[in-house]
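Issue 218. Parser rejects a valid record. Input:
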Amino acid sequence: MTNSSSTRVQEFIGDPLSEEPIVDRGKLEAVFNDIQADMRYDHELNGCLNCGICTATCPAAHYYDFSPREIVQLLWTENLEGIHDAMQEKIWSCAQCYTCAARCPFGNSPGGLVMIMRETAIKHGMESAKSVLRPFSRVMLKLISTGNQLAPDMITADHFPDWGPNISKVDAPLDLLRKAIPMPTLNTTKTAWEVNLKTSVELFTIWEETGVLDQLETIDENLFDVIEDFMEEKREDLEDWEEEQDDDDDE
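Output the parser choked on:
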């Protein structure tokens, strides 16, 4: 290849050692185009010296099969297969601490690029995104139904394995322990705390307008339907309450 026709872009080459079926090139291009089209992309990727400073200072790289440098190189060379492969597992190891962005001499932000890739994985309904976000479906439902993200009875070893071995400590008899604590504000094992009806509707509307619900429908259609039905009832309740207030004011 001559200098005049050289390119940093890696062509589609396949992996002769992999037993995984080859992903259709059209799908690979669609995924990359969505990543590249994000308005943050050009701010987060400026070039790469392949110096490895980002990986050397990355906490996640010390414990997982993850390298910020690899993410940057895959995107910089437009390695479509490599990008798709990284989105199946590796991008979910990033802790989003942005130490990489603070260290990169080129001003890249691998953590920011990972965030774009995660959002794209959700948009395309990748199984990796569904698997990672599945444990948080109850949290989301709890948030929209009561306004509280997490009640003690929701914290179990099965649902939060990434919290480490100490998560097993919450398997204690919470109901009994709560009764022994003479503070009524801590008796939230079952009900958590209720929030204002208007606040719940406003929260749902924010999710609706910002596209969060569209992403949820891609990842968990059943949960999406439950939350939509739940909020339809809340909106009707709010309308009824507002009408009652108007009637009281008229009197």
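Fixed in the parser; the record now loads. The chain is about 50% helix and 0% strand.
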